[in-house]
């Protein structure tokens, strides 16, 4: 399965169909929301869509709402992304100054905890810049007029009776193998380890963040122990550290 470099600094694996679907939707709709549970890969998918949009879609602005807990935080997130020249601009002034008329893409990442505020700002953007496109990520639909929701599901996992070649074709195994190579240089999928790798992929339920956590452990824990020890997704904990995104600490 082909992997391409993403803005995250790691290869992008397993979502080619979703990238194409969302990119096509943005050609037709002003607001597209990638909807899914925590750790499912919404932000990474949005990043890949933003990286690959056609040049005629205009400039791309990334608005990270992950640390925004109220209206002031949302305004600050937009200012960080749009970089106004005036001090303390109103939201309308900010949009008019920094978002050009015509085509542009604004990615609104992590909207679920500021739904009411972000909905009103989306309405303002679409009124001031009707040709702009907005790509949102959220655990909950935004319930804004014209919103197209694209649910993001877990990656496909191999069946218990899959052959080694069939297991290697599943998106969950492809991502697991790709990330394990970061922890275990030269790691590759073969007949000797395909059953263990496939079992691990199934037990992560195809959730990309869970796959990455397991892959990170592969550098210090033998593959057989990981396969035996990961009973299900609930056993994969994330430490509450500043290195982990707040939205992922409960996984």
Task: List the main descriptive attributes of the protein structure presented here.
251 residues, alpha/beta, five-stranded parallel β-sheet, two-stranded antiparallel ribbon, 10 helices
Average pLDDT confidence is 85
Q: Helical percent range?
A: 40-55%
Quaternary structure state of the chains depicted: single chain
Largest sheet: 5 strands, parallel
How much of the sequence lies in strands comes to 5-15%
The first-to-last residue Cα distance is 27 Å
Shape label: elongated
**From N to C, what is the helix and strand string?**
EEHEHEHHEHEEHHHHH
Provide the gyration radius in Å: 20 Å
For the biggest β-sheet, the strand order reads 4-5-6-3-7
Instruction: Quickly count the helices.
Output: 10
* Structural class determined from secondary elements: alpha/beta
Q: How many strands in all? A: 7
Unreliable spans are 1-7, 236-244
């Amino acid at each position: 399965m082909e992997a391409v470099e993403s803005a995250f600094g790691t290869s992008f694996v397993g979502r080619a169909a979703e990238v194409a679907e969302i990119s096509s939707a943005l050609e037709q709709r002003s607001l597209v929301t990638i909807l899914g549970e925590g750790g499912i890969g919404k932000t990474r998918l949005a990043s890949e869509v933003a990286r690959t949009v056609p040049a005629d879609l205009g400039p791309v602005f990334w608005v990270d709402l992950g640390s925004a807990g109220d209206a002031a935080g949302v305004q600050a997130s937009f200012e960080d992304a749009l970089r106004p020249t005036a001090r303390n601009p109103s939201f309308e002034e900010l949009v008019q100054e920094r978002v050009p008329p015509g085509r542009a893409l604004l990615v609104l990442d992590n909207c679920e905890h500021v739904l009411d505020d972000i909905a009103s700002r989306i309405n303002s953007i679409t009124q001031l810049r009707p040709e702009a496109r907005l790509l949102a990520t959220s655990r909950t639909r935004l319930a804004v007029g014209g919103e197209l929701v694209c649910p993001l599901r877990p990656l496909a996992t191999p069946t218990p009776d899959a052959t080694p070649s069939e297991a290697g074709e599943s998106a969950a195994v492809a991502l697991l193998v790709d990330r394990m190579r970061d922890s275990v240089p030269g790691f590759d999928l073969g007949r000797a380890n395909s059953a263990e790798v496939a079992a691990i992929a199934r037990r992560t339920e195809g959730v990309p963040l869970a796959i990455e956590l397991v892959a990170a452990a592969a550098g210090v824990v033998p593959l057989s122990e990981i396969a035996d020890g990961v009973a299900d997704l609930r056993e994969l904990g994330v430490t509450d550290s500043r290195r982990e995104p707040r939205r992922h600490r409960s996984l």
